[in-house]
């Protein structure tokens, strides 16, 4: 009886894994119509209307890609979805009493925003890492960045850089400047508290830091692989 139950559970897990792989393969070519975070917003009863408009990476200013890489994941072009060196560094800082900081890559954030939920539990972080490894194995970096910039949350009910660009600056994402791109990237850690429209002194400090990192990464040349 126990063996049958274990066998059934194993087949269930295999089926679930195959379903996830098939979905990741499908989303390499088909734009996701929504995400778990957007669905969560719709069912939360929020008074803020959900705004999101899909655009291709070619319709997004390349400064935005560089700004989010400078802010969130500077090894994005080189890791395989999970940056193990960043995780080791974060753990070392935690042991040294500097507090626990996030080490999620852009790929992990894409997996979380698309399939999972917010939180810091071990189960969710493990699922996030596994999904990120699968996504990085199946999607090119260009596709990861495109999906990320179209589903990331930039404010209450504002998902994707095109909706954020119109909401905060009144222009399409293709026309965003370096500073505007840095302002959007600066609020990503906590878009419900931080504002790109009316930046606090803290946000302006982050903008200045991000601009400095963008220059230090050698500018747009750093992400030439996304646009070749």
TrEMBL record:
Pathway(s) per entry: Cell wall biogenesis; peptidoglycan biosynthesis
Protein name per the record: Biosynthetic peptidoglycan transglycosylase
Major site of localization recorded for this protein: membrane
Cellular component aspect of the GO annotation: peptidoglycan-based cell wall; plasma membrane
Regions crossing the membrane: 9-30
An annotated GO BP: regulation of cell shape
Subcellular location per the Swiss-Prot or TrEMBL entry: Cell inner membrane
Provenance organism: Marinobacter salarius
Originating gene: mtgA
EC number of this enzyme: 2.4.99.28
Membrane topology type: Single-pass membrane protein
Broad enzyme group: transferase
Catalytic reaction list: [GlcNAc-(1->4)-Mur2Ac(oyl-L-Ala-gamma-D-Glu-L-Lys-D-Ala-D-Ala)](n)-di-trans,octa-cis-undecaprenyl diphosphate + beta-D-GlcNAc-(1->4)-Mur2Ac(oyl-L-Ala-gamma-D-Glu-L-Lys-D-Ala-D-Ala)-di-trans,octa-cis-undecaprenyl diphosphate = [GlcNAc-(1->4)-Mur2Ac(oyl-L-Ala-gamma-D-Glu-L-Lys-D-Ala-D-Ala)](n+1)-di-trans,octa-cis-undecaprenyl diphosphate + di-trans,octa-cis-undecaprenyl diphosphate + H(+)
GO molecular function, a single term: pentosyltransferase activity
